[in-house]
């Protein structure tokens, strides 16, 4: 049996439970818990005049009703601003329950706790809140006019303003470089809002035993929820544990924390001395979690006769909604990752991050990259069109070359560290994707077009993750890491890493993620970082355990540790298979015992003769047990890359857009499990197709989200998503021991750019707004005819 | 007012008292403890809550429990044979990596089980049509489609 499982398409170890209904998602827990429900604002912007709870008091099963005034000072404070930044001069966060003013439809105003959700919602329906409506601010252009303010103390609705400039090699700035360039173009691009929209919403379940608090949350970061809850409730950290159970998708929205409900539900559980649970319903998810993507971009570019960029200036208006709990990560990522695989000459990027009376904006898979890539790739296509060149030729003229790595883009990335690309081979990737889609032999016809999009994705951001590995006396290996899982298959890929490092069959390895009882130090699962950061931490922890196992085994076998190897869970002298000792026995020997709880353990007790009487049973510098813990803290991000190409057909009458072929070439460094990486890409592309053709959040002028249901917000079904053809390129990252990069977000990033490129090719009409619906295309055609 | 009803769930008669407004999905999950049936939208679009009612797929979130008194219901917990193995559809989903977070999976498994019972060898178009009432946000469907074809093969082999 091989234990070299790194790189193999191993079937997922989480599947048997998920296929038989034995998964444990948030709302599957706490069957007897009280249920919470919330009265949420029906207004986009209003002052709360009065809250009358009296009509709800007779509801059978009602337990408690809380408004902001009922909250203790510490609980009622504004939620933390998670990622401060000097440019975020006017950061604002919500109170857990609205205090005086509501700033978007869906903001929680009253919390109700009752025997079950039906009763809690009955009570919510009877509570009367009197509002004085204020002028709502909807849409970026209205917001920057500043006639009405979302926060009275934020002039012009500008939360943050940041300019970043990278001069050309000759020291000239972007504006000068553009003005003196042989050719220039200027244009505007628009991207509308979409959202992560996991099929399981958010949810929190808390139990308090009078001393210790246990919180389950459908989150992408249990360790940080734990610290936030302990801080808000004034509890010592060791008395709080937070567990992410099976999580039904995250895609970014569940990295935000603490949500109001993550503070309020545990607080209510403590106050009432009862278990309390809240599971978000779909409408709540639409109007009270988070959205992303919405931006307007103004682009000026200067280039030479070959299409080489000499200067690029991008001015971005970014709509961050009513609050900024996650800081300005999204526009920072857009600004930096916009550069893609290219050398742009001089670059100037400026963004204003703007308040509107809409749901807050925080990262959704891709986290600002789809917008940046849309901008750069539209620019490339426009240059090619202007010069009459092939679109891939213009891209190739601007590529960073393989021998130029590490390549410093001269900017500061989202982790506060320099934007230095670690490795890649963009010309080869372009060759591969052209071959895969048949770029050079493509036969263009009216209503049939081909498009391309390239991106570079900073993945595996720090600050760190850790891994703990324990081998017990039954020979089983228990791996834990602090970050959480939402379907990525961590139980499988981390077990593959451990199996490979330790020489143990995967069947004997179990992996736990997102449980602060098992591992307390972690950051979270986002930015395509889990495999890179936790994967390497687990590998390093395994190496520590392996070294200890070999040391103990060498002692027992009277051999040199350097002569030992581990195969199939047994340590043996290389070339002498009979001189061997199973890891289970090594684990016994690693833990000197007084008491024999089973036959194996008897071998480590004090009269068994296994220990030297002239030395302490646990030698100096040693610890009992066969276990190890280690951390991986990357110096900076790794940079994965990909190139997608698609063929589309447009209907001459209905303007329906059909994706006929979709090809992906992807480089995430060394693949741990190609089956899982491909699955991530397929899913990302599907979300990208949603963002390119179907999904948009439609606010009316009053700030009402008019399509807040799955009936009206169109996510793609199987009938809308093309079959994705994939090919992999592996340029290992030199930054980490396993050479891996990260794959979680990759699929989604360039899709809008690719589809725009292909539709433009098919129609001959500039495509500068995404998503594009049949009706949008129909109107563009009509505009051309006029 | 509560009503006493009997549901034949996964072959066993379960008697339960529910108010008239109790959704079948809530009854299965909260009253009977069968939490494998998931609720993704509660307005009948996503298909996560799909169960088999007399062998046919229905949205349990759009069904009142009292309206199916006496009916036979199969949930994801009842798809595997009693010998502890997975059903061919379940095995095909594992083999083809047809699931990631697993939240929509029970609905897909019930839908596909009924689809293949009716049409043991569906064409590509029939598979797409057959699963076009279920949303998945993770997989992009490609491997789910593959799994349906694979399940059809496994079922044929078993006969």
From TrEMBL, chain A:
Enumerate the residue ranges of region (Disordered).
Answer: 606-627
User: Which GO MF terms are attached to this record?
Assistant: iron ion binding; oxidoreductase activity
Listed A to Z, the keywords are:
Molybdenum, Oxidoreductase
Taxonomic superkingdom: Bacteria
**Which SUPFAM superfamilies has this protein been placed in?**
CO dehydrogenase molybdoprotein N-domain-like, Molybdenum cofactor-binding domain
Q: Which residues form the Aldehyde oxidase/xanthine dehydrogenase a/b hammerhead domain?
A: 20-135
Family annotation (SMART domains)? Ald_Xan_dh_C (SM01008)
Which InterPro entries does the entry mention?
Ald_Oxase/Xan_DH_a/b, Ald_Oxase/Xan_DH_a/b_sf, Ald_Oxase/xanthine_DH-like, AldOxase/xan_DH_MoCoBD1, AldOxase/xan_DH_MoCoBD2, AldOxase/xan_DH_Mopterin-bd_sf
Q: Cross-referenced PANTHER family, in alphabetical order?
A: ALDEHYDE OXIDASE 1-RELATED, XANTHINE DEHYDROGENASE
Write the protein's name. Answer: Xanthine dehydrogenase family protein molybdopterin-binding subunit
TrEMBL record, chain B:
- Domain 2Fe-2S ferredoxin-type: from-to ranges: 3-79
Database matches in InterPro entries: 2Fe-2S-bd (IPR002888), 2Fe-2S-bd_dom_sf (IPR036884), 2Fe-2S_ferredoxin-like_sf (IPR036010), 2Fe-2S_ferredoxin-type (IPR001041), Beta-grasp_dom_sf (IPR012675), Diverse_Oxidoreductases (IPR051452)
The answer to whether the entry has keyword Phosphoprotein is no
Question: What does the UniProt keyword field contain?
Answer: 2Fe-2S, Iron, Iron-sulfur, Metal-binding, Oxidoreductase
Q: Which domain of life is it from?
A: Bacteria
Keyword Oxidoreductase included in the entry's annotation: yes
What pathway, per the record? Alkaloid degradation; nicotine degradation
Any one Pfam family here would be Fer2_2
Question: A single Gene Ontology molecular function, please?
Answer: 2 iron, 2 sulfur cluster binding
What is the recorded name of this protein? (2Fe-2S)-binding protein
């Amino acid at each position: 049996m091989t234990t070299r499982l790194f790189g193999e398409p191993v079937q997922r170890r989480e599947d048997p439970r998920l296929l038989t209904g034995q998964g444990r998602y948030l709302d599957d827990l706490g069957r007897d818990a009280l249920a919470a429900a919330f009265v949420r604002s029906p207004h986009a912007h209003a002052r709360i005049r009065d809250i009358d709870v009296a009509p709800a008091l007779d509801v059978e099963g009602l337990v408690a009703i809380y408004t902001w005034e009922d909250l203790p000072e510490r609980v009622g404070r504004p939620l933390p601003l998670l990622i401060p930044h000097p440019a975020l001069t006017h950061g604002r966060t919500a109170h857990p329950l609205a205090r005086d003013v509501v700033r978007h439809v869906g903001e929680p105003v009253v919390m109700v706790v009752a025997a079950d959700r039906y009763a809690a919602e009955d009570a919510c329906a009877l509570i009367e809140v009197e509002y004085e409506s204020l002028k709502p601010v909807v849409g970026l252009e209205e917001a920057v006019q500043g006639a009405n303010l979302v926060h009275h103390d934020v002039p012009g609705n500008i939360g943050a303003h940041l300019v970043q400039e990278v001069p050309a090699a000759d020291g000239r700035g972007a504006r000068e470089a553009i003005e003196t360039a042989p050719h220039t173009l200027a244009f505007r691009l628009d991207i509308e809002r979409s959202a992560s929209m996991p099929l399981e919403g958010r949810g929190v379940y808390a139990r308090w035993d009078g001393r210790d608090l246990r919180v389950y949350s459908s989150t992408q970061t249990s360790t940080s929820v734990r610290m936030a809850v302990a801080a808000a409730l004034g509890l010592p950290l060791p008395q709080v544990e937070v567990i992410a159970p099976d999580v039904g998708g995250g895609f970014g929205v569940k990295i935000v924390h603490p949500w109001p409900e993550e503070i309020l539900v545990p607080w209510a559980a403590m106050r009432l001395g009862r278990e309390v649970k809240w599971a978000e319903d779909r409408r709540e998810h639409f109007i009270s979690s988070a959205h992303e993507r919405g931006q307007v971009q103004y682009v000026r570019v200067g280039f030479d006769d070959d299409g080489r960029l000499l200067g690029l200036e991008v001015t971005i208006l970014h709509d961050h909604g009513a609050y900024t709990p996650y800081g300005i990560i999204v526009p920072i990522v857009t600004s930096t990752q916009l550069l893609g695989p290219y050398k742009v000459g001089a670059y100037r990027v400026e963004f204003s991050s703007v308040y509107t009376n809409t749901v807050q904006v925080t990262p959704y898979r891709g986290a600002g990259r789809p917008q940046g890539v849309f901008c750069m790739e539209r620019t490339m296509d426009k240059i090619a069109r202007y010069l009459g060149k092939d679109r891939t030729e213009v891209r190739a003229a601007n590529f960073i070359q393989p021998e130029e790595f590490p390549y410093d883009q001269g900017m500061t990335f989202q982790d506060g560290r320099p934007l230095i690309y670690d490795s890649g081979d963009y010309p080869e990737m372009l060759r591969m994707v052209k071959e895969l889609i048949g770029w050079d032999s493509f036969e263009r016809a009216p209503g049939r077009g081909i498009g391309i999009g390239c991106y570079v994705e900073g993945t595996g951001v720090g600050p760190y993750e850790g891994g703990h590995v324990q081998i017990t006396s039954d020979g089983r290996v228990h791996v834990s890491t602090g970050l959480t899982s939402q379907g990525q298959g961590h139980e499988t890929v981390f077990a593959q890493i451990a199996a490979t490092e330790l020489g143990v069959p995967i069947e004997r390895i179990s992996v736990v993620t997102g449980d602060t009882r098992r591992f307390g130090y972690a950051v979270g699962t986002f930015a395509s970082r889990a495999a890179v950061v936790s994967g390497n931490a687990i590998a390093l922890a395994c190496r520590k355990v392996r070294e200890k196992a070999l040391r103990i085994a060498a002692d027992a076998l009277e051999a040199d540790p350097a002569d030992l190897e581990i195969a199939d869970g047994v340590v043996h002298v290389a070339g002498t298979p009979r001189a061997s000792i199973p890891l289970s026995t090594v684990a016994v020997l690693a833990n000197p015992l007084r008491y024999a709880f089973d036959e194996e353990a008897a071998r480590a007790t004090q009269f068994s003769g296994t220990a030297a009487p002239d030395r302490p049973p646990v030698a100096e510098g040693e610890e009992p047990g066969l276990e190890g813990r280690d951390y991986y803290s990357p110096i900076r991000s790794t940079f994965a890359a990909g190139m997608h190409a698609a063929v589309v057909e447009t209907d001459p009458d209905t303007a329906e857009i059909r994706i006929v072929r979709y090809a992906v070439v992807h480089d995430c460094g060394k693949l741990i499990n190609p089956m899982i990486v491909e699955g991530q890409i397929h899913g990302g592309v599907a979300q990208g197709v949603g963002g390119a053709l179907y999904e948009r959040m439609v606010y009316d002028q009053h700030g009402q989200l008019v399509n807040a249901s799955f009936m009206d917000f169109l996510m793609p079904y199987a009938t809308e998503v093309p079959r994705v053809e994939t090919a992999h390129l592996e340029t290992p990252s030199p930054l980490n021991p396993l050479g891996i990069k990260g794959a979680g977000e990759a699929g989604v990033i360039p899709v809008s750019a690719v589809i725009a490129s292909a539709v433009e090719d098919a129609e001959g009409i500039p495509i500068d707004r995404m998503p594009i619906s049949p009706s949008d295309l129909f109107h563009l055609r009509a505009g051309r005819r006029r | 007012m509560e009503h006493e009803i009997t549901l034949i769930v996964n072959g066993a008669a379960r008697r339960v008292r529910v108010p008239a407004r109790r959704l079948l999905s809530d009854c299965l999950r909260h009253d009977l403890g069968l939490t494998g049936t998931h609720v993704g939208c509660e307005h009948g679009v996503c298909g996560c809550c799909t169960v088999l009612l007399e062998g046919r797929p229905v949205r349990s979130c759009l069904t009142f429990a009292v309206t199916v008194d006496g009916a036979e219901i199969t949930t994801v917990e009842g798809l595997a044979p009693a010998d502890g193995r997975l059903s061919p559809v379940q095995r095909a989903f594992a083999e083809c990596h047809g699931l990631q977070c697993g939240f929509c999976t029970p609905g897909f498994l019930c839908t596909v089980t009924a689809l293949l019972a009716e049409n043991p060898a569906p064409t590509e178009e029939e598979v797409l049509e057959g699963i076009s009432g279920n949303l998945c946000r993770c997989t992009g469907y490609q491997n789910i489609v593959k799994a349906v074809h694979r399940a059809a093969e496994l079922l044929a082999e078993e006969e």
